[in-house]
Amino acid sequence: MSDDFSRFKHFTGGLGKNIHKALLRAVLYLERMVEEEAPKVTGNLVNHISSYVVDRGQQSYGIVALGAKYTGYVIRGTGIYGPYKQRIRPVRKKALAFSYGGAQVVVRSVAGQRPNPFHLRARKKALPKLLEIFGGFRK
What Rg, from alpha-carbon coordinates, does the chain have? Predict the structure, then answer.
């Protein structure tokens, strides 16, 4: 963990350094919770979760980034469960063809995927620990 804190050497002593350490701990913990809650069908979604701390003068932000291109589809859902509420149909062909459970499937349309707001579940699960981390900085 000391390696994680080495990038904050330019903050000298006092409360500032402790706040940045707490922020880094909180961001790393939240990243771990998001990884636990994320669906792991192929592992690609989990592999594209990252976190970092951004310093802007007197303000710092902790960010957990969900970098897979399809993350929005997982979170919001697709087809009848998504924002357009319509079945998924092929645009240029008469049918959709894909593998499911090791078998080749050909269909005219599919319902889609239900929303999976895993990031919100992770936030709710992490909140008590985050409050504990930052509890010592209350006025």
Answer: 21
- Report the first-to-last Cα separation within the chain, whole angstroms: 28
> Max alpha carbon distance in the chain (Å)?
67
Q: Helix (H, G, I), strand (E, B), or coil: what is residue 87?
A: coil
Helices 14-37 and 118-134 cross at an angle (nearest 10°) of 150
Tens digits of per-residue pLDDT, 93-137?
999 999 988 999 999 999 999 999 999 999 999 999 999 998 877
Contact in structure between 71 and 119 (CB atoms under 8 Å): no
- Domain boundaries, given as residue ranges, for the chain: 2-71+116-137, 78-114
Quick: pLDDT tens for 30-55.
999 999 999 999 999 999 999 999 88
